[in-house]
Amino acid sequence: MALNRAEQRAATRQALLAEGRRRFAADGYHHVVLAEVAEAVGVTKGAAYHHFDSKAGLFRAVVCEVQRELGERVASEADRHEDLWEQLRAGCRAFLAAGTDPAVRQILLVDAPTVLGWDEWRALDEESSARHLAEALTSLAAAGIIAEQPVEPLARLLSGAMNEAALWIARGGDAQSVEQALDRLLAGLRTAP
Amino acid sequence: MALNRAEQRAATRQALLAEGRRRFAADGYHHVVLAEVAEAVGVTKGAAYHHFDSKAGLFRAVVCEVQRELGERVASEADRHEDLWEQLRAGCRAFLAAGTDPAVRQILLVDAPTVLGWDEWRALDEESSARHLAEALTSLAAAGIIAEQPVEPLARLLSGAMNEAALWIARGGDAQSVEQALDRLLAGLRTAP
DNA sequence: ACATTTCGCATACCCTAGGTATGTGAACCG
DNA sequence: CGGTTCACATACCTAGGGTATGCGAAATGT
Questions:
Q1: Same domain, A68 and A48
Q2: Contact A152 B29 (CB under 8 A)
Q3: Which of B119, B157, B163 sits opposite A185 (nearest CB)?
Q4: Do residues B12 and B68 share a domain?
Q5: Residue-range definition of the domain harbouring residue A19
Q6: Rounded CA gap, B34 and A46, in Å?
Q7: What pTM, to 2 d.p., does this model score?
Q8: Is residue A192 part of a domain?
Q9: Using 50, 70 and 90 to split pLDDT, how confident is the model at A2?
């Protein structure tokens, strides 16, 4: 298989991303040394800096990838339901389940806010999973299933709740009881039938 | 004012803590250089290592201090009310208000989880503010004001929600609307009267 | 087809900053 | 007043992120 330059470039970049992701997930950002990531892929540190402007740059790329996957997973789980309310619940459960994935846990929930800065992290979050949540809440409010209200603060609250809960589950907390507690919280938002 | 050795030691330690706190809050953990903290206090890096085993050690001490203060602030606000329900609401509002303090924001909410590791951070959190929340919920459940249920998962959810909300407010989100959204969430937990 | 340019990556180097090992002088203690 | 402790300074080590430059093969133009 003769690779032309574009293919070669893409292959190296992908390999660095994959290896970086593995290590960031397993060891945490600060314990990862860039030269070792490169070496494991069969290139040198120079190659890494040819593809990413810094260690944080590689991390950022990994974060985007993981975010995107997470958003898709959540959306696809939600879309398996017709009912708006069940869509919300399914999305939330999918998010919590995703928290057990070490890549999501360590990379997205623990390291990303510090490494990228909270502002940038939030912007990325907004593009993927957080936006879905806000949209779901908007639909529910429009349909009269929950009270009409500003959606953004509520979305932030729920997003934070689930981030924390996902970490708690990943660390050994009982997923069942979290889902139940979350269901109660959400149920409390419903307008009386 | 002639200081004896114990007093001198305490004074230096306090000065390092105070200066560290200022810088950690303003610049974030990674941008703070230990030697500069020491220099600003009028000692050298060696002194810092005489008092703390590492940069993370100084940070840990700062985190404990800030945590303790936060816990006290929340508890004292809550204790100004007789009604259990109002205690919960007051505590939550006090927590959200505290999030505007850069020390709380950057040190506790952004950096602490990564620097100390999520496990240790959670343990510290447990000792201070999180414990108060769990106790409040237990009391409310016992009094029949909210449904009888496992308290820990609910406490984690609410804690996460408020952490995130505090950050959001600190970054410019509207505090009023967050408080309203939180009130709705909490109100949904009440048993029908 | 051959000269020229591009570019993906390697090599070699710099420098910051966390951490350590050891020295020193003043406070303490018998 | 001699010895000990201890708070801190000085000097040094080292890892690792970042940079400057070189090289050889693929791409490109004539």
A1: no
A2: no
A3: B157
A4: no
A5: 1-52
A6: 30
A7: 0.93
A8: no
A9: low
